[in-house]
Amino acid sequence: MVSPTSTFDLLEQAKNGDREALSRAFEKHRRRLAVLAHFKLGSRTPEFADAEDVVQETCLRAFRDIGHFSYQSPGSFFRWLSAIADHVIVDRVRYRNRECRAGEEVRFRSETNPLGPEPADTKTPSRLLAQREAIERLLDRLNALPEDYRQAILMAKIERLSTAEMAVRLNKPRDAVALLVYRAVKRFRELSDASEA
Amino acid sequence: MDDDREQSLADAFADLLDRRSTAHPPELAGELAALSEIDRVLEPAPPLPGRLSGHTIVGEIGAGGMGRVLLAVDEALGRKVAIKTLAPRYAGDAGLRARFMDEARAMARVNHPNVARIYSLGPAEEPPHFVMEYLAGASLTAAAARLDFREKAELMAKVALAAHFLHDQGIVHRDLKPANILVDADLEPKLLDFGLALDLAGEEHRASLGQVAGTPEYLSPEQAAARPLDGRSDVFSLGAILYELLTGAPPFHGDTVSDLLRAIREEEPALPRRRAPGVPRDLQNICLKALEKDPAGRYASAREMADDLRRFLAGETVLAEPAAYARLIAGKVGQHLRDLESWRHDQVVSEAEYDGIRKRYERLIEREDAWIMEARRLTLPQVTLYLGAWVLAVGAAFLTFFSYPALAGAPAIAAAWAAAIPSAWLGIRHWNRGNSRVAIGFLLAFCLVTPIAALATAQEAHIFTAVTQGQLRLEIFHRLDFAKQATNAQLWWSLLTALPVCWLLRRFTRAPVFSLMFATYAALLCLATLLRMGMLDWLDHDPGRFYFHLLPCALLFLAAGFIFERRRLPDDSRYFYPFAVAFTWAALSGVAAFHEPYARWLNSVLPWTRGQVEYLFIANAAIYFSLDRLCRLQSSPQLRLVGHAFRFVIPGHVMTSLFLLGLDAQSHAEARAFEWTLPAVACVFVFASIPRQMKNFFASGLLFLAIGAYRLQQQVFPGRAFWPVALLAAGLALMLIAGNYAPLKVTLARSLKKFRLP
């Protein structure tokens, strides 16, 4: 993962009004966010469209609210995004039948709205799609795991929580968490091997 | 693994994850690799390069496992171009890089309006890439969403022709899928990515299946099994694409890649019309033929598939007749027969229905080959083929039966065999080339012409000229004074030559039609044998004797059918039984009607019968009844049908005889007896229809009941109002009983019990 600037630098520039920088920072987390959203949506299919909607919406809200974000640690931006995604998902459930989107408040950059966020996904609709098939295979495999194993892998690899943080969240000793993660990854690896055989 | 060891591994793993340590215990290598794959999949897209081949990159069009396709502007020419790049993680691999470039060069050779063009190859100092035509369009499935079936077929025909063009250039696309076919606003499809992604994917395929670039839904079974490929692999993919266009979903599904690949290798796709009932049958056939598992069963080339699609568009008959149907039928039939067996056991269906359905199904299974189905369809070539065979046989028969001064002697023999030998030769040739339908036509013609040609030979060569029993009047051809004369012996021998021919052809082609021919010739041979025994004389003076001599023929055929069926050759026995039944009917009826010793014997044993023919027919009915019983003792399904045929004629024999005996009665008492017996027996037959579901028992019973009632009206109750009123009352009573059958039965059973108890 080679980035010209760290997430921290990008976010600092973003808070100073550099929308391009925020776009790039967001781009770095886009896929992980999508996978997380996919499972938070409770979807059991490898259909990815809903998660992509959530990511899009999260992106718009992040642009709107970037002023409220304060950088604390390397994982904090993703955690902030994931919290926004939670709200988006709750709102989706709440307004399932109504179109109520931040998109009505914040529009992507266009000639009439030169300050809107850089529409990474309108210029390149397949940015996320680029690895879509690979991602869907990954979702397949994650879906095949038992619930607790899947949660462990999502926490460890997608949210990038340390085992200590996981121990707090799961209210378990770190030993037990380590064992859970290890077993989960082991099963995940077996699934990967099986699908390649 | 013991718990402590697992915990220590887990702790080491957790430390690695938390980046507290960097030591890699070798046991964890696999787990770490699996996790790093997650990172690789989810890593953000690398930034776009600024310029490639001097073109300004303005965006990304798409990406797959192997690389990305970028949108660029060729500023010199003022046009958009697409630039295909190899993913950086593969760029370091010299072998892959060389192949990427090789495929680009191969692609440059192809110049076809439905194949995306390549403009230039990236210079060596830049990252590997090549510049292609930029295509604005939708993927095939997106474009086809609003098209009707004809437009879809037209689109697929173009795609198939483009694929054929690639095959002609020695390129197998290997990754034909809707995403790789762009359709522009004029509905012109363009193939992308041919050879390239595929060849590379093939490489990767061998390395690790989990990373096959692209979805494997359109792979062929030989790709899924990693067997060698040719153009027919693309034909399969075209079939899968057509399937998706027709039904909205690809033909094969699986929860995992390996499930999907297994399905592609082993499962038959659901019939497209099952998924989308509006799909035209011909398009379904084309699709299924392209999706045959065995490449030899598919279209031999993409062009043939395109031709068939064009035939559909032109409203002509398509050639596709996928064997999948026949297999489907065979599979489903087995299941249904098992169901039937249990239904019969539970008496949901009667024995007769079971036999009937079973018989029909066995005929279906018998037609396991597509060509047999095709051979049964009345198409122009098919009709012409059999018309030709028939005209050939008729022409040969003329040569034998009529004398032509210009064709006397050897030329007649030569002409007859000149028809027979080439049809055999052409038949075998077609058969060996797999053209079974036409082959059977020729071989049947040969079968028909052989005995005729043999007869012509015997006539002209003057062999077997001995006249039957030295009497010319016993010769059948002598009676036909317009015909060229042949002896009974010549006829007999020429029929005999046909038998081994039929037998050999049956063995050679395994087509049951030659069993039918064999049985027919054998029946004719039986008659020829009777001719040589003096049949014509019997017919003139004592026809009963002729019919009596048919009995051994009937037995012969019955035995032949029975033996064949016992030896598990139901396709052969099937054609002997009908002859056996026909011979038996003819023989027994003829003997009853004409055989004087039989009547005399009856007269001497039962003088009151006066040896009347009607009693003999009643006796025949008894014989048929016992024959039916005998047949039912055997477990063979075909023999049961034979028994059914015998049973079928019983009511007609019995009731017609009773009716005629009534008309012919010599005394008042006798007349009364028959007038009352006929309706009584008719009632018996009406009820006898129940156990074996004999509908003809029921119908003929009703008919003769009415006739009997009429006879009683005329002879016993003339002008008496009592008779019709009694009939009205009886009819009403019967209907009331039927309407309250169950309660009546219970009451009856109770009162019977009471009656018995004291």
Tell me the helix content of chain B.
55-70%
Radius of gyration of chain A: 18 Å
Low-confidence stretches of chain B: 195-214
In the CATH classification, which architecture of the largest domain in chain A applies? Orthogonal Bundle
What integer value in Å does the Rg of chain B equal? 40 Å
Biggest chain pair interface? A-B, 50 and 43 residues
Number of domains of chain A: 2
User: For this entry, what is the oligomeric state of its chains?
Assistant: heterodimer
Rounded to the nearest angstrom, the distance between the terminal CA atoms of chain B is 83 Å
Principal-axis shape of chain A: globular
Structural class of chain B: mainly alpha
CATH class call of the largest domain in chain A: Mainly Alpha
Q: What is the arithmetic mean of pLDDT of chain A?
A: 72
Q: Portion of residues in helices of chain A?
A: 55-70%
Q: Main β-sheet of chain A: number of strands, strand sense, barrel status?
A: none
Number of helices of chain A: 9
Query: Total number of helical segments of chain B?
Result: 33
Measured distance between first and last alpha carbons of chain A: 29 Å
How many extended strands of chain B?
9
